[in-house]
Write a structure and sequence with these properties.
Blueprint: E1 2-3, E2 19-20, E3 30-31, H1 32-35, E4 39-41, E5 47-57, E6 66-74, E7 78-83, E8 87-90, E9 95-97, E10 113-114, H2 115-119, E11 123-126, E12 132-142, E13 148-156, E14 168-172, E15 176-177, H3 189-196, H4 200-209, H5 212-221, H6 224-231, H7 236-244, H8 248-257, H9 260-268, H10 272-281, H11 284-294, H12 301-307
Parallel strand pairs: 4-9
Antiparallel strand pairs: 1-2, 3-12, 4-5, 5-6, 5-10, 6-7, 8-9, 11-12, 11-15, 12-13, 13-14
Helix pairs in contact: 4-6, 6-8, 8-10, 9-11
């Protein structure tokens, strides 16, 4: 049995519909953003992982895309692919599988699209009304051939006047333009909202797997404190790459928000000139703590730089 997971977000009156059979005259819709973080159980009731995203094959803006499977995070923070043929049940709080899972690390193919990672925040237009907004959720349901497809798109208009949030619409997939193809300036508002619901380690794991353009948009939109928390959980190479793409002032602010030992480790991985510049831009007390910690590590660029001051 399936349960509609959107709640009261839709403006067209859609809401919880209760549990129904997998195929009915009114199939229950499962909304992707509400799936993220749900536990995945095997047939014995043991948790084997958590949902992180949906993988779909986008072919056109008319035909409903087929849902290929779920990106699951299993223990050890490994992300694997779970085909929809292995998903036996979804309800309001968990996902069940056959238990036969391939533990090979998930690698996205060029023909695949991540619903959370790549479709949220796309700018789209509703054909019938000409209304333009951003995608804040996408619904899937099971077709009569038992394939899962993306059936509806939740769109939010820009805020107007004194309203904090714009009007929302839930429309059929075929009624929306702008879902296919590359978008040069895709925002990250709704993806950020999903990431902010996660623990820093889980958010870091999702950011690590995002395409380069989406990762850059997310980093730009995260507030300094949250980005610092996430950076502490990322692999060293990701930390360096992200920090080097920030302007120097913001990079220094992020380092101040990090714990001194994590900041010291990260600065030690940077080129000496960059490290020196960021230390100069940091608040004196914060920079002094970092320099002191870096001095404990012998034969590093940071330690030699500290001794020379």
């Amino acid at each position: 049995m399936l349960t509609d997971l959107l709640g009261d977000a839709a403006s067209d009156g859609e809401g919880p519909t209760g549990s129904v059979g997998p195929v009915s005259t009114t199939p229950t819709r499962v909304y992707a953003a509400r799936l993220v973080g749900l536990p995945i159980f095997d047939p014995q009731g043991d948790q084997v992982g958590k949902v992180r995203d949906l993988v779909v094959a986008l072919r056109s803006e008319v035909n409903q895309p087929r849902v290929l499977g779920v990106v699951a995070e299993v223990f050890g923070r490994r992300r694997i692919f779970v085909p929809m043929t292995r998903v036996t049940n979804i309800d309001s709080g968990q996902v069940y599988t056959t238990g036969l899972l391939n533990m090979r690390r998930f690698e996205q193919r060029s023909t695949e699209t991540l619903v959370i990672g790549q479709l949220l925040d796309r700018t789209v237009t509703i054909r019938e009304t000409g209304v333009t907004g951003t995608v804040y959720d996408v619904a899937m349901e099971q077709a009569r051939n038992r394939d899962w497809v993306l059936s509806r798109v939740a769109v939010q208009e820009p805020a107007k006047g004194l309203r904090r949030r714009g009007q929302t619409h839930v429309v059929e997939w075929r009624d929306v333009e702008g879902l296919i193809g590359r978008e040069e300036k895709q925002g990250a508002t709704h993806l950020i909202a999903a990431l902010n619901e996660m623990r820093p380690a889980d958010a870091a794991n999702m950011i690590h797997e995002l395409p380069v353009e989406r990762r850059a948009a997310v980093v730009a939109a995260l507030d300094d404190e949250r980005l610092a928390d996430v950076l502490e959980e990322l692999p060293d190479e990701d930390q360096v790459e992200i920090l080097e793409h920030l302007d120097s002032e913001r990079a220094a602010d992020i380092l101040e928000e990090m714990s001194p030992d994590d900041a010291a480790d990260l600065i030690a991985d940077l080129p000496p000139d960059t490290a020196a510049q960021l230390l100069e831009l940091m608040a004196p007390d914060e920079a002094e703590d970092v320099r002191r910690l870096m001095s404990y590590a012998e034969h590093t660029a940071g330690a030699m730089m500290t001794r020379s001051r």
